[in-house]
Amino acid sequence: MTEKFCPLPWIIQAIRNDGNIRACSNSHSSISKGLLHKADGSVYNAGVDNLAEAFNSEDLKSLRLSMLENKTNPICARCDREDAQGVRSRRKVESENWSQQFTIQDAKAITSVDGTVSAMPIYLDMRFGNKCNLKCRSCSPTDSNFWYEDHAELWGQTSFNDGNKKINLIREGSKLVEDTEMYRWYENPGFWDQMFQRLQNVEQIHTVGGEPLLIDQHFTLLEKCIEMNIAHKITIEYNSNITVIPEKAWALWSHFKRINIGASIDGVGRVNDYIRHPSRFENIFNNLKKIDQSPDNIFCWIATTVQVYNAHHLPELMKWVVKNKFNKVQRFLGMPILNCHPLHNPQFLSTKIFPTPVKEWISELYAECNIWMEENAHLYLEKEWAEATVLHVKEILSAYEAHMQSEDLSNLLPKFMTYTRGLDSIRKESFEHSIPELWEKLKPYTLP
Question: 0.90 exceeded by the pTM?
Answer without folding.
Answer: yes
